[in-house]
Write a structure and sequence with these properties.
The chain is an alpha/beta fold and 222 residues long. Helices cover 34% and strands 28% of the residues. Bound molecules: adenosine-5'-diphosphate and magnesium ion.
Length: 222
């Protein structure tokens, strides 16, 4: 399979005052097209940091991330934003929906930003129907349960048909039954479309649903 994303020798430190924390100490990983990859590791081990670096959200101190052979941190900030909007979908632990918009608008927004607004709303409605929210499209996020909000966030992440989807503990704020439902939709959407997924999780159960499992420990992937 084709390599879609290659991270090479990623180092990331955080400096607060005089203390420097080395979070990623030279992480390398290849993600192949269509793979589902889980990343586990203790709290504070750098999972979110790695996911943000891989997704083009956080510039590493050193190392390279190549997306289909192109260096994403070699791009200007504006080009990298466009690159992300077109190619990358994110789902975060806290759903990050905009409270002043209804969920149809929230889901349609990424496509509007790319300038293809014409069919954005009908596509958003289709995706929301696929995640079981067809009846709720006019509702604001705060009128939905946590699980429903996360399903809307899933629909939004898929809106631009991204080549790769990153999810950071997508069920971390949900009870286990609600979380299972969100995961059911996530894997169904990803697998039916052959998307590539990189998923951070605390749960061995969730990790075992992925085609490859990675663990982050002491700043390195093992
Ligand atoms: P995880 O997602 O595995 O819990 P994170 O990537 O969020 O871990 O964080 C890794 C380490 O880096 C933690 O010790 C955390 O406190 C620290 N850290 C994360 N973000 C920042 C930041 N913006 N400034 C300073 N330290 C940070
Ligand atoms: Mg985290």
């Amino acid at each position: 399979m084709e390599t879609i994303l290659r991270a090479e020798n990623i180092k990331r430190t955080y400096t607060i005052g005089k203390t420097t924390l080395e979070v990623l100490k030279g992480v390398s990983v290849d993600v192949k097209s269509g793979e589902t990859v889980s990343i586990m590791g203790e709290s504070g081990s750098g999972k979110s940091t790695l996911l943000h670096v891989m997704g083009g959200l956080d510039t590493p101190k050193s190392g390279e991330v190549h997306f289909r052979g192109q260096s994403i941190y070699g791009m200007s900030g504006a080009r990298r934003s466009r690159f992300r909007a077109k190619n990358v979908g994110f789902v975060f632990q806290s759903f990050h929906l905009l409270p002043e918009l209804d969920i149809l608008e929230n889901v349609a927004l990424p496509a509007m930003a790319l300038g293809s607004a014409i069919n954005a709303k009908s596509r958003a409605a289709e995706l929301l129907t696929e995640v079981g929210l067809g009846e709720r499209i006019g509702h604001r996020p705060q009128e939905l349960s946590g699980g429903e909000q996360q399903r809307a966030a899933l629909a939004r992440a898929l809106m631009n048909e991204p080549d790769i989807i990153f999810t950071d503990e997508p069920t971390g704020n949900l009870d286990s039954k609600t979380g299972d439902k969100v995961l059911h939709y996530l894997f169904q959407l990803v697998e039916s479309r052959g998307h590539t997924l990189v998923l951070v999780t605390h749960s061995q159960d969730v990790a075992s649903r992925c085609s490859r499992q990675l663990v982050l420990k002491d700043g390195l992937l093992i």
